[in-house]
Design goal:
This protein has about 350 residues and is α/β, with parallel strands linked by helices. It has 2 domains: about 210 residues, Spore Coat Polysaccharide Biosynthesis Protein SpsA, Chain A (Alpha-Beta Complex); about 100 residues, no CATH class. It is built from 13 helices and 12 strands. The longest helix has 27 residues. It is elongated and about 75 Å long.
Length: about 350
């Protein structure tokens, strides 16, 4: 990491109680080569060893964010604080749970410049550890990939906008001119809103899968996964209630068909049993093909069938919490929905 001025990239990492993952993230970033950059970690009121870990990396600047005022999200507040006085050509907003592959920073900037994009966002390769993660995460990302295809997102003539706050690279001058995170400080899905802000202002955005560039483990325990997706799901999909019904019905149809087929086999009713197997196989094939879009291992795609009821329940739970006047909790802070977020025709996901 060099400190030449002006630097090419200012990397900003908001961190609130990220002791479990921040060290790996910073180790992967300080080892980047081929480009001038600086790293800022914004300690957002952490009560664990987050700050000490950040300070253990020479050359990494560590700032302490003030408590956000009512109506401003904690992540936006931290990012606004982190970019003050930056003169870098590019700003990279990335989360503490990310791992940056060697050479990825220089390659990302080169890709943004080649594409003439003012905002580039990668959807990181998602890492999973627990059974719950493996059962749920492929389902969420498969439906996101289906609903928000990058081909449409990257088309300047299509209003669909998408971004992933785990890796969001922006041209600083454009970001500043548009008001940056100050312009969207009250939004829960700040990455989505930033992408929409850029695209609606006729600035090119580029979004794609980030395999080989960046990976991330969004949630490290089941409660945080439930809390995180409760916050986001209803804002990510145009009709979460309809999607919940479809995914729940998909699970019931496959399971009921298999059960009926087994019963018919016991009673030596071979034709009905065969029909039941064909129905189950047909709907499972649709399910499995859809899941392949999520870029998860085959074993997780298979296991995630049993996560369909959980996904349906979370969609319903998120919709309930997202009603006007409803509240969601994330990292010890509560956010109330005073008005509907931008319709979910413009999003992908964020851990923020």
């Amino acid at each position: 990491m060099r400190s030449a001025a002006p630097i090419a990239v200012q990397v900003v990492i908001p961190a609130r109680n990220e002791a479990d993952c921040l060290g790996r993230c910073l180790a992967s970033l300080v080892a980047q080569e081929g480009i001038d950059f600086a790293i800022t970690v914004v300690d957002d009121g952490s009560t664990d060893s987050t700050r000490a870990i950040a300070e253990s990396f020479p050359g990494v600047r560590v700032l302490s964010a003030s408590e956000p005022v009512p109506g401003v999200s904690g992540k936006c507040n931290a990012l606004i604080f982190g970019v003050k006085d930056s003169s870098a050509t590019w700003l990279l907003f990335t989360d503490a749970d990310t791992y940056h592959h060697p050479g990825s920073l220089a390659a990302a900037v080169a890709e943004a410049e080649e594409r003439n994009a003012d905002l580039l966002s990668f959807s990181p390769e998602q890492e999973t550890g627990s059974w719950g993660e493996r059962a749920l995460m492929p389902l969420v990302f498969a439906d996101l990939a289906k609903t928000y295809p990058p081909k449409r997102v990257n088309d300047p003539g299509d209003p669909l906008a998408a971004a992933n706050g785990q890796y969001l690279l922006v041209r600083r001058k454009v970001y500043t001119a548009l008001g940056g995170h100050c312009a969207i400080a009250n939004k829960i899905l700040e990455d989505v809103e930033l992408a929409h802000l850029f695209k609606a202002s006729d600035h090119k955005i580029w979004f794609r899968q980030g395999d080989g560039f960046v990976s991330a483990r969004m949630y490290r325990d089941f409660p945080s996964m439930i809390e995180g997706w409760t916050k986001n799901l209803a804002l990510l999909f145009p009709n979460p209630l309809r999607l919940a019904a479809i995914r729940g019905l998909e699970f019931v149809v496959v399971l009921a068909s298999l059960t009926a087929s087994a019963i018919w086999l016991i009673h030596r009713e071979q034709v009905p049993a065969a029909v039941g197997l064909v129905v189950a196989g047909f709907f499972f094939a649709i399910f499995f093909r859809r899941n392949l879009r999520a870029h998860f291992p085959i074993s997780s795609n298979l296991l995630s069938f049993f996560g369909l009821p959980l996904f349906a329940w979370l969609l319903l739970r998120s919709r309930l919490h997202s009603r006007v006047g409803g509240a969601v909790t994330w990292k010890g802070r509560q956010y109330r929905h005073s008005a509907p977020e931008r319709p979910a025709n413009s999003s992908i996901t964020s851990r923020s």
